[in-house]
Specification:
With about 180 residues, this protein is of the alpha/beta class. It contains nine helices and six strands; from the N terminus they run βααβααβαβαβαβαα. About 40% of the residues are buried.
């Protein structure tokens, strides 16, 4: 196992936010934590100009992305899907591929369904996945835990929001550090 896959660099990373939608999020016990941590990651994406890909599962039935996240986006352009894996949607694969980056920070709902299937599909396509364990959730803790274990077994790096932020920051004392450290206090 090459140690390089555990490192994140702002020049080689894209952020993917999967299906954090109104009706779906309402059923999640970890809703607020996932939204807050995703907002931290969106701020890092903004500060470091990381490409961002946002998806929505059947928005007619599950509603749009939650307002907190929608209002934090530079532009609201979700990729709509009905498949559980985002990788089954050509527009998604084109968006991730056009970034030219091979490491993916993955957040979203639900850990054991859409996040898992997207993770597996991206790994199959040769991407290195960093699944943010405190920025993904399922309706039950068991499904969340099983989804994370499954993705780790498949080769994903399971991480947390602050680890991602500090890996991308690399050092203290910068303007980017000041912006992001205020968010996590």
């Amino acid at each position: 196992m090459a140690i390089e896959r555990f490192f994140l660099d702002k020049e080689e990373t894209v952020l993917v936010v999967v299906d954090i939608q109104e009706r779906l999020a309402a059923a999640m016990e970890m809703r607020e934590k996932v939204i807050t941590n995703t907002l931290h990651l969106l701020e890092a994406a903004k500060v470091f100009s990381l490409p961002l890909v946002l998806t929505e599962q059947y928005p007619k039935g599950l509603g749009p992305t939650v307002e907190e996240i929608r209002s934090a986006l530079p532009s609201y352009q979700p990729i709509e899907k009905v498949t559980f894996s985002c990788c089954k949607v050509q527009n998604f694969m084109d968006s991730v591929g056009s970034s030219g980056r091979r490491k993916v920070i993955l957040t979203g709902i639900e850990t054991h369904v859409c996040v898992l299937q997207t993770c597996l599909g991206l790994i199959r396509e040769g991407y290195i996945l960093h699944v943010v364990g405190d920025a993904v959730c399922s309706r039950s803790k068991e499904n969340h835990d099983m989804g994370l274990a499954f993705m780790r077994d498949a080769g994903a790096v399971i991480t947390c929001t602050e680890t991602v932020l500090f890996q991308i920051l690399e050092k203290a004392g910068t303007e980017e550090f000041k912006v992001l450290s205020k968010r996590i206090k």
